[in-house]
Specification:
Elements (H helix, E strand, L loop, with lengths): L4 E5 L6 E6 L3 H19 L3 H17 L1 H12 L3 H26 L2 E3 L8 E8 L2 E5 L7 H12 L3 E5 L5 H12 L2 H4 L2 E4 L3 H9 L4 E5 L2 H12 L5 E4 L4 E5 L5 H13 L9 E7 H16 L21 H16 L3 E7 L5 E7 L16 E7 L2 H8 L4 E2 L1 E5 L3 H8 L6 E4 L16 E2 L2 E2 L4 H6 L2 E8 L8 H4 L6 H12 L3 H12 L20
Parallel strand pairs: 5-6, 5-8, 6-7, 8-9, 10-11, 10-16, 11-14, 13-14, 16-17
Antiparallel strand pairs: 1-2, 3-4, 4-20, 9-19, 12-13, 15-18
Helix pairs in contact: 1-8, 2-4, 3-4, 3-6, 4-5, 10-11, 17-18
Amino acid sequence: MDREKLAFINPATGNQFGEVTMSTPEEVKQAVDEMRASFPAWSGKSVKERVRILRKFQNLLIDQRNEISSVVSQDTGKSRQDSLIELFVTVDMLAQNCANAAKWLKKRRVSSGLYFMKKCIIEHRPHGVVAVISPWNYPLMISLTPMLSALLAGNTVVLKTSEITPAVGVLLETLFKTIPELALYVRVVHGDGRVGAALTNSRPDYIFVTGSTATGKKIMQAAADSFIPVTLELGGKDAMIVLEDADLDAAAHWGTWGAYFNAGQACMSVERVYVVESKYDEFVKRSVQYTKEINSGFTLDENSPYQFGPITDPRQIQIIDEHVKDAVDKGARVLCGGKESGAFYKPMVMVDVNHSMKLMQEETFGPIMPIMKVRDEEEAIRLANDNSLGLAASVYSRDQARATRVAEKLEASSIIINDSLAQYGIPMLPLGGVKDSGIGTTHGREGLLEFTRPYSYAIGGAPPKWDVATIMRKLGNYDLGVAIMGVVYGTTLKQKWETLSQFLHRGKKDKVASSVKPEPVGTK
């Protein structure tokens, strides 16, 4: 019986350029079992040794840059330069993590409080087998960045890439096999949601998912049955705020770039814009001008004349069209752009939008910039927060202190001032959504430590008689315990003195009668 296959389809041309056999549930389970068996060997290596091996992989990524950018370009329809951006960010993050991993993962001594004779240590240990389920919009970068962090932390990894971009999955499998010292600790499985479900059901020790909110909820429910911890990097409906003192040309330039980069297929794309009314008309005018300068198309040439390519997933086209139609039916206007042939769109500026429209409430994932007029800063903040998603946002103002104050009021976890989307590529900044945009964190120290569990140790000999741990475990020391607690932790000098004084004079004055008459209860 023939096995089911995934075709490699270039979404820009519709041409097939390869295929891969889908993994069976048995093969998925075998991959997890193999990684569990190899986990002791990989986790047993020093951080320095893991860094050495992963730097070989870093070297390979740079050497194979042209092959990598070519495959990513064909699989997604994005330009070679945008494909190179995926690789560039990946290599940058790997280099930064390798430089800092030993420090981040080092055992750390913490205060033992009043337990003076104990030495207290925190150690970060890897989970075990990490399952990474990655999306189609950035199939290289969002596969490798969590994988490489998990490996640095000492985990073994099973990756499932999207069925929409299977060629990148095969490419990654080939790259890992090129480094024998690393190949033993990584597996790649290929397939659709059924393979993802099989991977979740194979009981890995940790699951890292990037995808839609709906997908994240399903995976979290499945993981809950086995108490498998998860990180969920999910959708965004990212707001951009333009204040009256903004540099309007810069805001229009970088705002349109943030809306249309990768055809708007980024969880941190600018998906809705709020402009104070005094600057609204001028901002709209400049945004239309910049938008009309942008061309969509496809070529495999390294230097493309096109700013973005097609919509990668055919299913997304239906969502984009539905959002546009719903908005227009409710009174919105399209000032420029629109659907072209196949999977291509000309970038669109839309106005007269409001929060009754799907375009302003649900993730669109397309090259559309809806702009809404607001009275002032307060209304902009209120509307920006009027959404179930909370991933990223941007604020434009010449007054950086003011922009920062506005940013601090936004219900989004990753905010950039006077720019759009670029904060994703800063290796040391953690990224993780709030509200329905997910749980957990990726990138930087916080992202690396997501792939570990903290273990704690209190080390020392038997407690001496004067140790607090001894005193509080010995009967008859209630008054002494009150005195120690009051003197050490009292929040005012009066409170400290009163508790000490009560202890020192406890036998020199009548005891205060309690309104509760205790009855002794014992056990035989």
